[in-house]
Sequence to fold (479 residues):
Amino acid sequence: EIYHNYFFDEPAFNTHDGGYVPLEVADAPEKPLAIPALLKPDKETDTDIWYTVTAQAGETQILPGQKTKTWGYNATILGQTIVYPVGKHIHVALENHLSELTTFHWHGLIVSGPYVDGGCHAPVYPGETKHIDFTLDQPAATTWLHAHPCPSTAEQVWHGLATLVLVKDDHINSLPLPHNYGVDDIPLVLQDRRFHENNQLDYHADYDPDGVQGPTAMINGTVNPVFDVTTQKIRLRILDGANRREWRLHFSDDLKFAQVGGDSSLLPEPVYLDHLMLTCAERAEIVVDFAGYHDGQTVTLFTDDTPIVKFRIHQFAPDNTALPDHLLTIDKPKVDPKTPIRKIVMSGMDESVMMDNKKFSMQRIDATQPVGQAQYWDITNANSPESGMVHPFHVHGTEFLVISRNGQAPYPNEHGFKDTVGVNPGETVRILVRFDLPGVYMYHCHIIEHEDGGMMAQIQTYYPDKPMPKYKLMDMDTL
Ligand code: C2O
Ligand code: CU
Ligand code: CU
Fold:
């Protein structure tokens, strides 16, 4: 079976927003798609691995003419790609070379909150280096690192502070999937920007409380990118890294592809599609087979009607490896029927966005949940189905399963573990959430301006048989 639709509610697409900024193809030459370098560990042993991640400012040649002032991790924009092997003890030095406070949030990693998680309670001040360490026990996935200082997450991400973090384990390494990074295993960070005078970004000029957008698609920091295909099959690790934009992806000729992974894990089995919509912070790993194409042809990836990446086909060796029918066994945590269902409501648009009728407060713990206990969370988007928007709901420090949408089956490509789920206006999405580590974790809409605007709350998880620890929570008002 091949699915041909985007699943989400069409009236809620961002194209219907008053403030929608349509994409335009930039008046700039085509450029090879930037493939971020893999970050080299400082040191590695059989049991441990050490990295240094530096947030830094720089200049990037994005458009012809003047370079753009940008920020990145170990790079001038976005960042080097970090690879974390499951099971090893990971040590990371977090260096802030910027002139303002930032945080290093591991979106999609199951690490303790609030400090290692790197949400707003984990500041690294200019010139400072902090050290964190953790061991991952989660399935292989495409996750990411981004800045998360409240309330300037959106602005820092707009400057470039976002990079991919690939979690790898023995299981994924053993599967017949394209694994050759930069050759047939390709990251695609989808973003949009507006370039002002002298090719500079101007976040404040572009500010929109419903999410900042720009007319120029920027993929891995490249405008008008071309990728040279030298293998029959490629795996794309796609991240919606935009502040607000949804991407409705499809290839020329409606070329079908197999989605093999979602946010936090592989899917149980490949799902065949020719259209795919991603909301902010969602990831999809897809495998594209160019069997029907030959040297000299081009396949284009579009969002709506705008071309965003060109794939230039070169000669390749035939590759008949079939995708496995089964990719991952999902162990669904059991919910005790006596456990109450947690109800969460995202409401409002623009400045009036709220989570459970409240604006975020850094010093207020909004909810608690015992470590190890599986709970259903019913996430409601209270916007009106006629004029509301999709709010992508994200939880830190866990991976959840999507159980239902308004009581119906979830979309066919959301059966893996996820950390972000798009909730249509008027819809209630039931998710199954379990935390494995104690701490304080944020949950919020991942339209980043909504998060900064207060559509966010925090939960404290605790060992039921131990006293509740008290965490030091940041208070931006006293800074
Ligand atoms: Cu992508 Cu609160 O995070
Ligand atoms: Cu996160
Ligand atoms: Cu939102």
DSSP finds three helices and 33 strands in the chain. The radius of gyration is 21 Å. The chain has three domains: 14-174, 177-313, 342-464.
